[in-house]
Amino acid sequence: MIEKNHPVVSACVLVIGNEVLSGRTVDANINFLASGLNAQGIRLMEARVIADDESAIVSAVNETRKKYNYVFTTGGIGSTHDDITAQSVARAFGVAFVRNGAAEEILRKHYAFELNDARLSMADMPVGAELIDNPVSKAPGFKIENVYVMAGVPAITRAMFDGLKHTLAGGRILKSRTVNTDLTEGVIAQHLGLVQQAHPDVEIGSYPFFRVKKFGVNLVVRGVDEAPIDKAVADLLKMIADLGGKAGEGEAETESISG
After folding, report:
1. Are residues 21 and 48 in the same domain?
2. Among 23, 54, 116, 149, which is least packed by CB within 10 angstroms?
3. CATH number for the domain harbouring residue 214
4. How many domains does the chain fold into?
């Protein structure tokens, strides 16, 4: 597979917040970060949604920071009682949770006479944290080792990531092409497996869809080099034709089906 000849620079996203788990808030950050990381040559290998629970956050941070090159958390760094991400990350690293002078200065300048203890608490961070700039609402995120702690509000998450992405060391960028067909997975499954075996330098994903009361499949070919992708796409088009199906290039505009 791709990793065999091109080692992957990996990442994990931890979405922290009871509001996401309850269904009250729909996460909008995973998709953005997956795309943004891929553009930097970093592959998002895992994403988790975690409750506002200190033990759960500590456990997830400690597990993933050892497993992946980068860990990005979103949510839980505001000024309310349930914003416990920062203190949980401090506990995960076994360091003190203290007032960061540079962050305090930013908050004092921004809020001026409207500054209160709750807002000032957003300057409390693990010892050794490096600030992540927040051009939207000013309260900074922070980085400690390979863990990047960001706000959960999508506009702020995006601004923070856009400001730090140039500092990330990635590998080769993963490219992709998509073939769609009106054939179903049950029809193509065995043949698709043979195409994958014939093209070990790419990954072929199969994503069924439903359109106008009919099923079909989007076949996505991913790799780091154009030539192997082109060859795999050619074989997929031939496979579909041989099976009597219709094929098109690009993602079919449909309702996707998980599984």
Report:
1. yes
2. 23
3. 3.30.70.260
4. 2
Residue 244, φ and ψ in degrees, nearest 5: 85, 20
> What amino acid is encoded at 107 in this protein?
L
| Structural domain that includes position 28 | 2-167
Secondary structure element (H or E) that encloses residue 39, with its range: helix 29-39
Nearest to 71 by CA among 54, 98, 102, 92: 92
Separation of alpha carbons 223 and 87, rounded Å: 39
Phi, then psi, of 197 in degrees rounded to 5: -60, -35
- Residue where a domain stops, chosen among 133, 167, 201: 167
- Domain boundary, last residue among 167, 200, 221: 167
Tokens of 7: 């080692």
Give residue 90's region: left, alpha or beta (phi > 0; psi -120 to 50).
alpha
Phi and psi at residue 98, to the nearest 5°: -135, 170
pLDDT over 60 (residue 206): yes
Residue spans of beta strands (DSSP E) within 4-68: 10-16, 43-50
pTM over 0.90: no
How are beta strands 43-50 and 10-16 bridged, if at all?
parallel
Closest residue by Cα to residue 157 from 35, 243, 72, 257: 72
The amino acid at 136: V
Residues 6+ apart with CB under 8 A from 241: 247
Is the domain of 163 the same as that of 180?
no
**What gap in Å lies between CA 10 and CA 80, rounded to an integer?**
32
Structure tokens at 77: 């760094």
